[in-house]
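Blackboard transcription, Thursday session:
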Amino acid sequence: MSLNVLAIESSAHTLGMSVARQSGGKIEILSNCSAKYPSLKEGYIPRKLAEFHAKNTRALLEETVSKAGIKFSDLDFVAYTRGPGMGHCLSVGADIARALGSALSVPAIGVNHALAHAEIVRYLSGAKDPIVVYVSGGNTQILCLEAGRYHVLGETLDMGIGNFLDMLGRSLSLSPPDAVGVLKLAAQPDCKYVPMPYVVKGMSVSYSGMLTYAQKMARAGAARKQDICYSAQETAFAALCEATERALLLKQKKEIVLCGGNGRNRRLSQMLGLVASENGARLCLAADEYLGDNAAMIALTALLMAGKDAPKKDADLGVVQDLRMDSEPVYWIRKK
Amino acid sequence: MSAKVLSKGAEAYLLEATFLSRPVVIKERRPKLYRIIQIDSALRRERTLSEARLLSAAKQAGVLCPLVQFVDCQRMRIFEEKLDGKLLSSASPAVRSKNAKVAGVLLGRLHSAGIYHGDYTTANLMLCKKGLYVIDFGLSERSLRFEDYATDLLLYKKAVTEKEFAAFLSGYKKVNPNVQAVVRQLCDIESRGRYVSRSQ
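(Written on the board underneath:)
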């Protein structure tokens, strides 16, 4: 007995679709396709993202199903991202799920995007009871499993680490004008460190002060762009690592799961690797395609939620922009 | 001087040794390999010096805390009086709630003296014969901002039950006349958290 799901991810700049199969308790990702809105100087305008998603729906859907090597009639249910994300974008995914569900007469269910980021890395890396470091554009959280939920131990007090780096890249007019541009400059061989505000409060971090400081520094011409990028990145990651180390020791865990789009940053994973090895823990990673926004994580989480049988029809196929990870019971994980 | 490692925290190693024929605890901030040396050495130096200064300032404010005996700025070590007690975090729930009010009084005194602790949880409160001690001033700073005081309260709030926090606040209120402003700031910080319901 096997279950096939088609999932749609559309919370932000990426429209993703994926087919995954659960059989005999094992989950296999059959296809994971996506179309990403380009990074522009003006940033992301939700309405334009939604138009992009809607325009790419048809082609991506056919590509996803054919790559998976199945027919539409093989699908047992459909999953989509309920939230968190931008309302315009989320609505497109929910619409696709509703339409597919009724066209194929199969149930559709909503999945928490943040939870899916954590679950795919946890599942693929085989982590049992980790500290989760979730780093993406809008989110920066340090979590652990407690009482059947992901409990937030610490998080950013203002902006997500990805937004911080993106905005820095934009205000320095880098190419591309985002975190990737910052990373590229920070990797130059002759970068010099200039002191930046370093904020860790308990297990939480804060980045808005550093952004203002870096912007002022750039305007005043007090340092070269590459020095600002290098220093900002090192400082931001060091603060996150320190908060993670505290969480690891406080909760006495032996695994760190790194998830979210900024998990693809090699410097960050290197630093967290050192935090792990210094404390006798293991850093759990997954391939890049499962770190940034992707639909495979939605498909996998939907299968975990469903268990053995296709889920019942979801009564509420809406979207929730401000859905939190800690509001979601993770009943499929049994600790110890 | 021989020293025995007592424990390894996120911030520093705690070692046990004898200094001038007295038992001491040495808090040593060893380098963190994950961060670049410029960030690492500045942070370790800053924190070691400020911790030593704030420990004595806290004592003057009437808060029980370990006595500083020596500061080693080469290896970033603080030699402190060795306390004999039990951490509040490992005490029974009954003992914890009995001491919640005192914990509030101590924090209130620190804030009244312009010191915020930075890591005020039950893991940094030690129950000794003479009373409840505040330990680990590693993240403390001098501050007159309600925002910083409220951050202390928030961390404690997250670490204890609702009832314990109420008792804690009643103690805090007794010694800190600014309690209303601090609690208002606390609500403000909570509402800033990402994706928190903002119905107020």
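Lecturer's comment: Strands of chain B lie at 4-8, 13-19, 22-28, 68-72, 77-81, 85-87, 115-116, 125-128, 131-134, 141-142.
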